[in-house]
Amino acid sequence: MIQDIVHQEDLKIPVRVVKDMPPDEQPREKLQRHGAEVLSNAELLAILLRTGTSRMNVIDTARSILDFSGGLHNLPRKEYKDLCRVDGIGSVKAVTIVAAMELARRLQSASIDEKIFFRSPEEVYAYFGPKMRDLRKEIFIIAFMNSAKRMIGYERMSIGGQTATIVDPSEAMRLAILNDAHSVVLLHNHPSGNPVASQADIQLTRRLYEAGRIVGVFVEDHIIVAGYEYVSLRSKGLIG
To answer: By the 8 A CB rule, do 184 and 217 touch?
Structure first.
């Protein structure tokens, strides 16, 4: 008796298309009926993606992106070129995700047109944290304030690698004077996620503090942003 041999690759398992699912399982219809808060992370992401692939429906495609990123928490750290490496994610889908993550970051920060006051490390992190915590390279920012501690602007001074950045104290104070700053807040990020200040961080802070003292610009604080954590060097007694 001769039996037919069916190879695994010859078996075509049909993809479960979202439009064939019950309405309460379709992300868009589910959102319209019950609200966005009831959707899973994958379902919300699926709405942005709009379509899946020949091998995965859009919800499974969204799950593959979250798995690749290590969860929603890490998705904002992924750049355009990273997302394009995911199976089924082309340039349009990658751009859409990156744009959505940037909108989310901006939403968490107050508008620069509003009156922003920095009276505590918590207020500094509330504004700059969303802008800095997902960056993969170290950057240094100097925020300028008037005598009422209202921010009147800020400058991204330098971009370094994953472990260090270079800042010239004289250039920092030149910018402060040009911006009519009464005082400044210094910030930089640690892409490693470790908020502990290094000896280099402490030495740079002291040099900037001394440079500010000479020209009459007070260094209020130096905030290190490390993901969802931060540390204030003034709170640690490392300034003044």
So the answer is: yes
The tally of domains found in the chain comes to 2
Question: What distance in Å separates the CA atoms of residue 23 and residue 30, rounded to the nearest whole number?
Answer: 7
> With left for phi above 0 and alpha for psi between -120 and 50, is residue 88 left, alpha or beta?
left
Q: How far apart are CA 236 and CA 221, in angstroms?
A: 10
Instruction: Render pLDDT for 21-40 as a digit per residue (tens, 0 to 9).
Output: 877 789 999 999 888 989 99
Give the tokens for residue 137: 């390279």
CA–CA gap between residue 128 and residue 218 (Å, rounded): 20
What pLDDT is stored for residue 74 in this prediction?
87
CATH number of the CATH domain containing 83: 1.10.150
The H or E element containing residue 28 is helix 27-34
DSSP classification of residue 38: G
